Structure formats: C-alpha cells, structure tokens
Amino acid sequence: MKMAFIDYYKxxxxxxxxxxxxxxxxxxxxxxxxxxxxxxxxxxxxxxxxEINEANEVLSNPENRxxxxxxxxxxxxxxxxxxxxxxxxxxxxxxxxxTSGGFSDNDFxxxxxxxxxxxxxxxxxxxxxxxRGQDYNAELxxxxxxxxxxxxxxxxxxxxxxxxxIPAGVKNAQVIKIKGHGSKGISGGPNGDLYIKFSIKNDxxxxxxxxxxxxxxxxxxxxxxxxxxxxxxxxxxxxKLKVKPETKNGAKVKLKGKGFxxxxxxGQFGDLFITYQLKTPENLSQKEKELFKELAKLR
Length: 299
Known about the structure:
Elements: E1 2-3, H1 8-12, H2 20-34, H3 43-59, H4 62-71, H5 78-93, H6 105-115, E2 136-143, E3 151-157, E4 160-166, E5 175-178, E6 194-201, E7 207-209, E8 212-220, H7 221-226, E9 228-234, E10 237-243, E11 252-255, E12 272-279, H8 286-298
Parallel strand pairs: 1-3, 2-6, 8-12
Antiparallel strand pairs: 3-4, 5-6, 7-8, 9-10, 11-12
C-alpha cells in the first residue's frame, strides 16, 4: 500500500490556472466515470472516486484553494504559518532585527524557507518555528479470514516499509494509529501520524456480531422431529452437534468459545450461535405421501 502527497490538480486532470467552471466540469466528468454504482466491486474505481471528491472539496472552495496553491501539502497549517509570519513582522517593526541577536531581511527569508520545507538558516541570529507534520490516512482492505488470526503485513509509506502486526479480532471500520509515520515535521517539528482504517469484507456464511458469530443451518424434517446428530461448520472446522427431538424451526443453539477472537485478548473467543432452518422434504414418493396421510390421521 503506497501513500503520498496527492496533487489535486493532477487528480482532476486540470492545471493551476483552471477556472471554477473548469474544476466543476472536470469533477462531474470524472465522478460519473468512477461512480461506485457504475463500477460495482471495483476497489480501484472506489479509491479514485474518493480522491476525486477530496480534490473537488478543496479546489471548489476559493479559500481552501488559495491556501492549497500557496502551501501545497501543508495547506491545512496555513493559519499557523500566517501567525508565525505576523510575529516575525512584529519583530522587524520593533527593531529587533538591528540587534546582534535579532532578524535581518535575509534571516526572515531563511525562516520561511525552513517552514516550507526548504533550508534552515545557520546564522546565529535566526530562529525557526516548529510545526507538526500532517497525519496520513489510509484504508486497508482485508477479508474476515485474514483477521481471524494475528498476522503481519508490510505497508509502504512514501517509499518506507512499515512492518505492521495486525491483531486477531480487529473490527470493520476500526482505526489504529502508527505514531510518527505521517508527513515529516517542519523546521524540526515532530512527524505526523499514520491512521489506518480497516475495511473487512465478509465472504463467508458466518455473520459477525462483535466477537460472536451466527450461522444458519438447514435441518431436515425427520431429524427435527426425531432428533439425531448433524455436522456443522465452525470458523476453524467441522463439529458434531446433537439435535433434540421436536426441534422447532428457528431454534438456536450456542457453541461456547467457537466464535471470533476477542481483540487483543489472547486465547479468548466469542460464541457461535446456530439457527436451525427447517427444510421440508420434496419430491415425495407415493409411499411417503401415504405415510404422511397416516400421520395426519393420528394427529
């Protein structure tokens, strides 16, 4: 998985001189092309659609677009930059730049170069304001089987590999934070963090409810009436289950500890709930029909 600074103009296929009308036109064209309804189960199109919407939200807003054009990747820190800029102007007006420990015009330029990711002045009189880097947000797609056991994955963030241990039992839409793996800090400030949101696809017959699992099992009429033994699936394999005589349609049975792993609780599991779905016999023979008629008379 790769994450890097996104060029919103490039995403919409326009240049920086594009008018509001150009932005709207480009957005509508691409949104139609990559809309989820027209691209079902296409993860690439889904990701593209999200990027297009994100780009449009920034560029279609004149104030945000102005910040983005001026500060690029760090546009959301624009107010902090402006406050720092105002403070430096106050220093200049107060005459501190004329003292041995103050700012000169060159120092002032160096200060802003350092804030915007350029060089940091080495002059004794120069100072810098540290800013925390931006956070990165990413979505990691896994299957329900993937998160049944703790496993490791390697993510690539701006060319750097991160070995990530994913605990068993992580939930759909859950977000975890990896400290210091966001955008690089400015002027020696701390790095931002990486937030990973899990998108877990359930391609099994089990329905997950937190740590519990639910499964519907077909039960034939004869076993339901007379009782017996059946084999049912659990997430780890098959088990034999006794059926009580005269089991009703919709009856539930709990298999303790056969559910899903509990998040960050090693060796602890939820329960598996089996729901019986009565299956009536089909294509009855003449003999079977006669027997059912006899049974009806007895009832």
